[in-house]
Amino acid sequence: MWINPAVAKFYNIVSNNAASINKTVKNITQNVSTPVFEKMTPADMNFLKMYAIGTRYRTGVTKPEVDELFAKDGIDFIESAYNLFCEKFMLSDSLRPGLSTDYFDNAVMRYICPEHRIVINTNPDLIGNINNTQFFGLLRHEFQHCIQNLKILSHETVGEKAVDSYTKFIALRDKQIFDSILSVPVEDCIKSATDQQQLEQILSFKSLYENNPKEYEQFLEMNLSDYKQQLESLRQSVIRGWGVIKENSKESDLVKEYFKALAGDGYYNSDGSVNMGRYINTITEQEAFLAGDIAECDVRGICFFRKMKEDLAKIENNPELFKDIKKQIKENK
């Protein structure tokens, strides 16, 4: 990952002078007490900027906590890692993100902003080779998105826009789901239903639509109203817990960038595929990747710079990705 200049500016790491960056790193961590390099390559300079920013996302997990966590496996490890992050970020019951599983074709896990929920993939082709250390880093990545979203909701003006935007997103998604259900013939519903309860729900839904269209529309409106109330409740909970981010505050511009990135689709290509160069250059992803990398290094006890160099080597072996990233770096200058 190459630090976007706009991201570095948010964290007051704007100089390309090695001495200046070393001084910045010294101010935020005790791990670097002497200059790291005198003659730095552009890659070295970038890694040091990443470290200077990334250390701000440390969770403060202790060795006993890590030892206890990594003595577990499977669902016990997942639930314990989730609970540990909730504890470290002081997320009360009303602020904790939902945690669920689903099957999808890409990504090991994802955070869904409108639902304030982390979803873990059950696709064995994607998760089969993920070890617990990698899982810990990936979960930390998603928790960073969770924190970004809660800050969006706590903003005095952006928070209200987010509630409206998320509600519209859910309305569109639900309509697509409901239209899909209604288009399936009854005999196909009977064949595909996983259990009797699900079948009864689907048949009842289809019957409501066909026999009482007005009541069906009321059902949709009530469903959407309930969802908006849940979002409003979450917004008020985060404001009570974290306070309001004022429009004219120092953090306001950062939160606006969060919302712009999380609510937009600016990193998609025209064919619907993800442009990785643009994707990893958004401020939300740069924060999340750094948070995950720092977390993984902390629990593995390895050097951050070593991991970054290994990751860079992997990217260089992927010509298309490396091309996208270099193009994005050029555009960001």
Walk me through the structure.
With 333 residues, this protein is mainly alpha-helical. The chain is built from 16 helices and 3 strands. It has helices at residues 5-10, 18-28, 42-54, 63-69, 74-88, 124-127, 132-154, 158-183, 186-192, 196-211, 213-242, 252-263, 276-279, 283-300, 304-316, 319-332; strands at residues 98-102, 109-112, 117-121. A 3-stranded mixed sheet has the order 1-3-2. A hairpin with a 4-residue loop joins strand 2 (109-112) and strand 3 (117-121). Helix 3 (42-54) packs across helix 15 (304-316), helix 7 crosses helix 11 (213-242) and helix 10 packs across helix 11. The longest helix is centred in the last third of the chain and has 30 residues, at 213-242. The radius of gyration is 23 Å and the shape is globular. The protein starts with a helix and ends with a helix.
Summarize the structure.
Helix content is 66%, strand content 4%. With 333 residues, the protein is mainly alpha-helical.
Question: Beta-sheet strand percentage?
Answer: under 5%
Poorly predicted regions are 32-36
Biggest β-sheet: strands ordered side by side in the sheet: 1-3-2
Multimeric state of these chains? single chain
Helix content: 55-70%
How far apart are the termini?
15 Å
Radius of gyration from CA coordinates: 23 Å
| Average pLDDT score | 83
SS element count, helices: 16
- The assigned structural class equals mainly alpha
The number of distinct β-strands equals 3
Question: Biggest sheet, open or closed, and with what strands and sense?
Answer: 3 strands, mixed
| H/E element sequence | HHHHHEEEHHHHHHHHHHH
Outline, from the CA principal axes? globular
